[in-house]
Amino acid sequence: MAGKPKQGLDYAGWDVHLFDDDNRIDELLDSQGWLGFSIYFYLCQKAYAIDGYFYRWSYSNSATTARKMGGGIGSDNIKQVVALCLRIGLFDDRLFG
Known about the structure:
By secondary structure, this protein is an all-alpha fold. The protein has helices at about 20, 25-50, 60-70, 75-90.
């Protein structure tokens, strides 16, 4: 008897050269610092955990994301980082909406 198909991934490896080979990461760090990278990383991890490579998220989720991340991160921080990630191609703006 087949069970319900598993959603999400149990493990998501990151390129060990992420900080060497991707100018988009340089731009994210330059503009938003490590706080911005942590927001990007958090949202990527949520995507991997929930649907594998997709996360149903919109700006209306900014406050909830900020609360879950904690550490003084506000919804405005989340919105700024997501907007930048969309602009520089870390997130796909054709799928965002």
